[in-house]
Amino acid sequence: MNGQSNFPVTDLLKGQVGLITGAGTAYGIGRECVKKFAAAGAKAIYACDLNINAIPSLQEECKKAGYTSIIEGRKLDVSSEDQTVEIVKEITKKHGRFDFYIANAGFANYRNLNDTELVHYDRQVNVMTRGAFIGIKYGSQAMAVTSEEKPQPGGAFVITGSCAGYLGSYSDLPYAVAKTALHGMISGASVHLSSSNIRVNGVAPGFTKSGILSNSQKAEQGEYKNTEDADQLQKNHMWFFERAGLLKAPEYYYNRLQDPEEVADVQLFLTSKLSTCINGQMILCDSGKTSAATGEACTGPVPPVKPLDLS
Description:
The protein is α/β, with parallel strands linked by helices. It has helices at about 30-40, 55-65, 80-95, 120-145, 175-190, 210-220, 230-245, 260-270, and strands at about 15-20, 45-50, 70-75, 100-105, 155-160, 200-205, 280-285.
């Protein structure tokens, strides 16, 4: 992004205002997204989550980095229409504009079908599908508000999907349903908002280091507290990567463990003016894991490419 762009990184979101959900924990995609957007010159970023214990450390980290963005923490259950409307109105009234909505909130509890009850299904769909719909409905209305700060309507949504929207073996059934539905939502919303100068895209992370599994059981119940730091959250996640087989053959690129900032880079790209020609797309960010789902089962051992003979 730095090399070929006509836009300095610090100007990519210069003056823009918006919110990022699922940004309250000490380690994860949402937190990294806030940092990336602050580095890109956003005027104000509202970091929203059920748990906002880690917001003060996020604010301090951005301050030490020299970012001038206003970073506000807000408790938000994205499945609540009232709460979403309230925060979107607050932002738009205070700043005279609303430019981006990053619907990143989510959780994942792995249950087999025998252990999955309707309450589990409903909560996952409410957070990750209904929540995205509510954000699009009211966030787009806020993006249509104009002012001296923002004379023309417009904005960008980036919805966090999952590799589970591409392959059924990645998750439990409710999670797969909730995430797969986002493909249709992004495609349809991009059309419904096309006359409003608003783009809608998504990222579908693969195996990414974050705090999602540490917090999911609590998030399923609603507002919660979590005081674990980034190091502990990373350690808590390693059992899942081991069970998934990624640690057994790390020499393959598709088995690499992704850092959350890698996904946040794509979120920034899709929000910024670097991606103005991209609309209605879900971008799979999984280091090629889905393409290599069967590994070497069919192809046999895959040797490294031989270096070019320069003789």
